[in-house]
Amino acid sequence: MQKLLYAYWSGDVPRDVTRDRFLSEMAPRLHDSGVERLQFNICDLGDLSGALEHLQLATMSPKPDGIVTFWVSSAWRREPAQRLLTAAFARIAGFAVVESAVLPNSLHPPRANERTHGFSQVSFLHLPPRLTTEEWRDRWLNRHSSVAIETQSNFCYTQNVVAYPLTPDAPPWRGVVEESFPPEALRNLRIFYDAENDEARFQRNFDAMMGSCAAFIDADGIDVLATSEYRLTAQPQPRL
Q1: Nearest to 112 by CA among 25, 20, 232
Q2: 3-state SS of the chain: helix, strand, coil percent to 5?
Q3: Complete DSSP assignment for 122-188
Q4: What share of the chain in percent tops pLDDT 90?
Q5: How far apart are the C-alpha atoms of 71 and 210, rounded to whole Å?
Q6: Close Cβ partners of 88 (under 8 Å, ≥ 6 residues apart)
Q7: pTM, rounded to two decimals
Q8: 121, 55 contact by CB (below 8 A)
C-alpha cells in the first residue's frame, strides 16, 4: 500500500462550500475509485486574527487550502482518484509519501465522518540549500522527532517524507508534517508549548523547539496551515 497526499487550492469557491461538497459528494466517489483511509483537511477555521504567528508562515502565495490523503495499492492505480480531485479543485499538487506515525492519536481518536478534536497543523517543508538530503532527513526524522512531541501539546504527530511528485507542477516540498493540537493552542503560545502555567517550562520548551527546527528548516523554507481534519469512511453520514 502507498500513501498519497494532495495539496489543493479551491480558487474562488468559499471554503464552507468546498468542505460540504467534499464530505457529501467527493468522499463517496473517491471511495468508489478504490481509495482507503481517506482524510480531508481544510483551512475553514474562520478569522485567524490573534492566531499564533507561525501559523501564518508561507513561502508561496496563495497557500493551499488544505490536503487530501489516502492509501491505494499502488500509486500506479491513482488515476481515477486523481481525475476526481483535478475536477473538484482549481489546482492540486500530488505526492507519493512515506508515512511515519511518530505519535498516533490515542488521546482524541478520530471519529468516522466527524471533525477531529482541536485543529490540525499541516506544515510543508523545503530542503535548505545548506544541507544535503541525507543531513536534512537525519536532523528531521532522527533528531527532531523526540523534541516535537516532548515540547508541544500535540496529541498526534505524523511525518510524511516525499518520495516523488505525482503532478507536473508540484512545489518542491520534501516533507509534510501533520500535527493535532487542542483548540486553545490556536491562540495561546503557552498552551501550544504544553506549559500553560509554568513560565520556566515554557521557555525551555520554546527554546528547545526553536533550536531543533532551525537545524533543518530555514525561515523561508516552510508553509504552514491551520486546518480542520476529517477521517472519512466509505459511507459518509449526512451533515446536520
Answers
A1: 232
A2: 30, 30, 40
A3: EEEE---TTS-HHHHHIIIIIIIHHHHHHSS--SEEEEEEEEEESSTT-----EEEEEEE-GGGGT-
A4: 93
A5: 33
A6: 8, 21, 22, 26
A7: 0.95
A8: yes
Q: For each of the domains in the chain, give its residue range(s) and CATH number, in order of start.
A: 2-232 (3.30.70.100)
Tell me the per-residue pLDDT of 59-74, one tens digit each, with 9 for 90 and over. 999 999 999 999 999 9
Q: Looking at 14-152, which runs of residues are DSSP E strands?
A: 36-42, 66-72, 91-103, 119-125
Q: What is the pLDDT of residues 130-182, one digit of tens each?
A: 999 999 999 999 999 999 999 999 999 999 999 999 999 999 999 999 999 99
Spatial distance between the Cα atoms of 10 and 88, rounded to a whole number of angstroms: 8
Is omega for the bond preceding 62 within 30 degrees of 0, making it cis?
yes
Nine-digit cell string for 82: 486523481
